[in-house]
Amino acid sequence: MSEASTASAYYEALLAASLDAIILMDRDGRCIEFNQAAVSMFGYAREDAVGRPVGELVVPPAARDAHNAGMHRYVSTGVSTVLNHHVELTAMRADGTEFPVEVAIVPIHSGADQVFAGYIRDISARQNAERRRAMLLQESSHRIKNILTVVQSLALRTFTDERSAAEARELFAGRLVALSHSNAALTADAHASAALAEIIDSEISGFGAQAEASGPLVALAPSAAQTFALILHELATNAAKYGALSTPLGKVAIAWRVIDAEDGQRLNFEWRESGGPPVNAPTRKGFGSMMLESIAAKDFGSQPETRYAADGFVYTFDAPLSQLTEEA
Predict the structure, then answer these.
(1) How confident is the model at residue 312 (pLDDT cuts 50, 70, 90)?
(2) Are the CB atoms for 233 and 199 separated by under 8 Å?
(3) How far apart are CA 205 and CA 242, in angstroms?
(4) What is the pLDDT of residues 261-306, one digit of tens each?
(5) Of 118, 123, 125, which Cα lies nearest the Cα of 38?
(6) Looking at domain 3-122, which CATH architecture does it have?
(7) Most-buried pick from 38, 69, 134, 250 (CB within 10 A)?
């Protein structure tokens, strides 16, 4: 095999093996080579692409004038801002869909002739990943600010003159753990929502068969998840100290359901205690009561109901589902 034949064979093999689309273009802007990767990327058969203006093949209509002007300027003056650089552009497939690409165009001289080789890589996946990283960083920053605000509020309302330092520390630590449960549920698998069932389970799992929960899958937005975690912690703490979970025979039944209403779907939630000691309404309302009532009403868009019934404490609310699942 002659040296020329060997070189030609290598050239053909290189075009066929390239993972990037390779398009060769003459000085008039017409396609003279279109490799298999270009066929796969753009959707043209090679025989349909060769001979046609490259601008018509792969350049979106809005960018064709600039493409043609740049070609003319380079042929006339030898000046180009695109050649011999990696640039990110928008390309167009045969079906008209546009997508982002990274392009490197280099002039190739062969005797008196000059052609241009374009090496093109689809960067859709890369740009999607970059956008997702930016979104996650923004969400993380937003969430951290929210958590710090909640922690500050917890500290201000827990460490008061009405409690001893030891009592306040224990109460504050428990509330921080509850907050961490919601954050753990939110960050699992990098999701931007937390399952209501998972947050409930993190609070009641230590009580075994005394506490049972049932309901459909509901994915809470970050702010709602944080509020829910703190509410459940208050309910579980109160039940363990004074209510049904303070005795071996006491029970807590937690149930939630999604119902259709005229104004949209709503979440109906119930915490019901039974088998415990007689319960009485508190004579003084602290941060726990405020969390169960006014803060829950503000965050959930519905006023909860607390009933200190003879057969056990009951806590319910009926809130717009969108208020819990969509982040403001």
Answers:
(1) very high
(2) no
(3) 19
(4) 888 999 999 999 999 998 888 777 766 777 788 878 888 888 999 9
(5) 118
(6) 2-Layer Sandwich (3.30)
(7) 38
The whole-angstrom separation of Cα 286 and Cα 102 is 60
| Closest C-alpha among 257, 255, 252, 269 to residue 206 | 252
For every residue of 45-90, DSSP letters joined together read: -HHHHTTSBHHHHHS-HHHHHHHHHHHHHHHHHS--SSTTSEEEEE
Instruction: Answer whether 23's CB lies under 8 Å from 58's CB.
Output: yes
> End-to-end alpha-carbon separation of the chain, Å?
71
**In the chain, alpha helices (H):** 3-17, 36-42, 46-49, 54-58, 61-77, 124-158, 165-187, 196-204, 222-241, 287-290, 296-300, 321-325
Residue 309 tokens read as 């019934």
User: Six-digit token pair at 96?
Assistant: 């008209």
Taking the CB of residue 184, how many other CB atoms lie within 10 A of it? 14
List every span in the chain annotated with CATH 3.30.450.20: 3-122
Asked if 120 contacts 91 with a C-beta cutoff of 8 angstroms, the reply is yes
| 160 contact partners, CB below 8 Å, separation of at least 6 | 168
**Is residue 125 predicted with pLDDT exceeding 80?**
yes
Predicted pLDDT at 203: 79
Q: Where in the chain is the domain with CATH 3.30.565.10?
A: 126-325
Say which residue the tokens 């109901």 belong to.
Answer: 305
- Comparing CA positions, the residue from 134, 153, 135 lying closest to residue 327 is 135
Tokens at 299, concatenated: 């965050």
Fold observed for domain 126-325? Heat Shock Protein 90 (3.30.565)
